[in-house]
Structures are given as C-alpha cells and as structure tokens.
Structure prediction request, 99 residues.
Amino acid sequence: MEHRTTIGVALGLLMAHHRLATPDDAFALLRKTSSHWQRKAYEIAKDLAGRRLDPGDIRVSPTSRPPAARLVPAYSQQLERLEELEQLEAEEEEHPATG
Prediction:
C-alpha cells in the first residue's frame, strides 16, 4: 500500500507541474524517465514525494507532451480566453475608440 500511495503523490505532482490531464499521462512520463535514467519508477516517485527531486527535473520532450486538447480543460479554456483578450487589446490599440 505504501508504494501505491507514494506513486500516487508523485503522479499528482507531475500532473500539476506539467499540466497533464490524466494520471495515465503522468505515469507514462514516470515510466519514460525511469527507463531513461535507468532507475526504478518507485525510487523516482519516492524522491518526488519526499521532495528530494523537483517535478521540473523530469523533462517532457516536445513529442511526448499531450496535445492541447488533452490538457486540463479549464486550463485550455483559460489559455484560449487569454489569447482572445490579447487579440482584442491589440485591435483596440490599432483602432482606438473615439468618444
């Protein structure tokens, strides 16, 4: 049971830091890192959960990052809204309202 809890905490940290949508995405990242670093996934998870390893130390390659549609929906919506607002601001600067 301790292993499951430790891995669960590590997956949550990876999901939050890398904005992954599902625990499966986080586990895939953990497995890939485990293979690349030649360390057991549980050992990496234990270091993450124990704060001896920062989630940012685990890199997501551009090809392994989930597409935008798989990001947490609320985050994706926030990004879309921010882009819309930036576009509106740019249009207002080009054509200031008179009045």
